Design the sequence.
């Protein structure tokens, strides 16, 4: 099986967008749609028909916003939590946050763990570009999620797992399923990777095999 490093995946993204002319927002749309389809396929009867989507302020969070929109359109009651300030969202995540506004899905900014009533958690907090140890409030929020007896799907990589080394950056989401984009990452199969990724499902989001 082909695996890629973070640098290789980032270069694939860049070449797809800049050289092949695939808009970055199209890749984000494809990623979120894929996660939603896998979520409803793997959990055909999501408990209470409720899902909680935890997003960061970067592109991984943008994937989470798209996932939330598709789940909502499938009849799932979605709660969306943003770790950080919405005012700091850029470009594609901002567009997809506004799309949630337009269908009446509230995005709640949080800075501490929250009580949730859901049958599924979507982890879209940090992506493969994360470097350095996670600090609060994300650290305490992730620790809280790991204590909940609720299935977790991570978007691209479990938040807090180094996608190159499989090491834990202070704390990491322990996923039951990781829906990773286009290629599995090297860190999934090293050190703590296998324990934290759970079942790895590869989603084709339209990036040509450039690496």
Sequence:
């Amino acid at each position: 099986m082909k695996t890629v490093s973070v640098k290789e995946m980032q270069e694939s993204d860049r070449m797809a967008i800049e050289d092949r002319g695939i808009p970055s927002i199209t890749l984000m749309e494809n990623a979120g749609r894929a996660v939603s389809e896998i979520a409803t396929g793997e959990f055909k009867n999501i408990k209470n028909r409720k899902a909680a989507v935890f997003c960061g302020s970067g592109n991984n969070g943008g994937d989470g916003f798209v996932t939330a929109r598709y789940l909502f359109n499938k009849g799932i009651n979605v709660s969306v939590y943003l770790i950080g300030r919405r005012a700091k969202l850029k470009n594609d995540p901002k567009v997809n946050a506004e799309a949630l506004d337009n269908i009446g899905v509230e995005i709640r900014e949080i800075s501490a763990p929250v009580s949730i009533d859901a049958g599924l958690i979507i982890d879209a907090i940090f992506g493969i570009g994360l470097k350095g140890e996670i600090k609060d409030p994300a650290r305490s929020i992730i620790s809280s999620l790991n204590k909940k007896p609720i299935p977790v799907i991570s978007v691209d990589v479990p938040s807090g797992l180094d996608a190159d080394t499989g090491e834990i950056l202070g704390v990491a989401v322990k996923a039951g399923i990781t829906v990773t984009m286009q290629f599995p990452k090297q860190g999934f199969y090293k050190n703590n990777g296998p324990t934290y990724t759970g079942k790895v499902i590869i989603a084709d989001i339209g990036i040509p095999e450039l690496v």
